[in-house]
Amino acid sequence: MKLRARSHLHRRRLAPGTVALLGVSMGLPLPPARDTQPQALSTPALEHVEVLRIHRDFGQARYLIALDGWVARTDLPQLAGLRLWWLDLARDDVRFPFEPWIHRAVEISYLDVSERRHTVTLRTDDLAFVFAVELDDSGQVRVHAPARTAQGSSARCEVRGARMLARRFLGVPTGVAEIRLRCRSPHGGSWRGVMVPTEHSCDKPVCGAG
Fold first, then answer.
1. CA 123/CA 104 separation, integer angstroms
2. N or C: which end of the chain has fewer CB within 10 A?
């Protein structure tokens, strides 16, 4: 989605590198994390953009994971924040927060890298899956992730679609096993790959389960 500045807003920015655990950045509060209709996701200060929909191999098909972003309505638009939460297809794409069991299984953190680049990281089972969200010079919000191609080589994926596969313990989802990606080809069309995670130290009880 292309975004344009609509009005000037004086605000205080947080320094690059600030970790926003609740999806808040730039000193501008995002819409409250509660049941929210899509049309209410934009505010006078922030313009909402749906960055990515993530499908899953667990739970009801009506619920997807939405990665939403907000851009400050300024003369020079800046990426204001990100949030991962549920999207309910049966209720016209209403968003609502994750339940506590999600946060017990997966640690989600947001990092304000620069005015135009933020990351969201999912940490689980000694692995970290990192999406980089960028606001480019044309006003497009794009999301990238490291991927492994079908041929086994590594590539930078401009993500157009994703499907999350759960790690299970006794049949119960306990974390993220794999994220499959649909990527935009620079020459048109698309290609498919698997997201490449990085290792990290995990102190959650579910780490290593299954």
1. 11
2. N
Mapping DSSP onto H, E and C, the string for the chain reads: CECCCCCCCCCCCCCCCEECCCCCECCECCCCCCCECHHHCCCCCEEEEEEEEEEECCCCCCEEEEEEEEEECCCCCEEEEEEEEEEEHHHCCEEECCCHHHHHHCEEEEEECCCCEEEEEEEECCEEEEEEEEECCCCEEEEEEEEEECCCCEEEEEEEEEEEEEEEECCEEEEEEEEEEEEECCCCCEEEEEECCEECCCCCCCCCCC
Q: Is residue 208 part of a domain?
A: no
* Identity of the amino acid at 27: G
Name the CA radius of gyration of the chain, rounded.
17
Domain contains 191: yes
pLDDT value of position 168 = 87
The pLDDT of residue 199? 75
Does any domain span residue 117? yes
User: Mean pLDDT per segment of 10 residues, for the chain of length 210 residues?
Assistant: 33 39 56 93 95 95 97 91 97 96 90 96 92 94 95 93 92 89 90 89 39
Write out the residue range of the structural domain in which residue 149 sits: 18-199
Does residue 3 lie within any of the structural domains? no
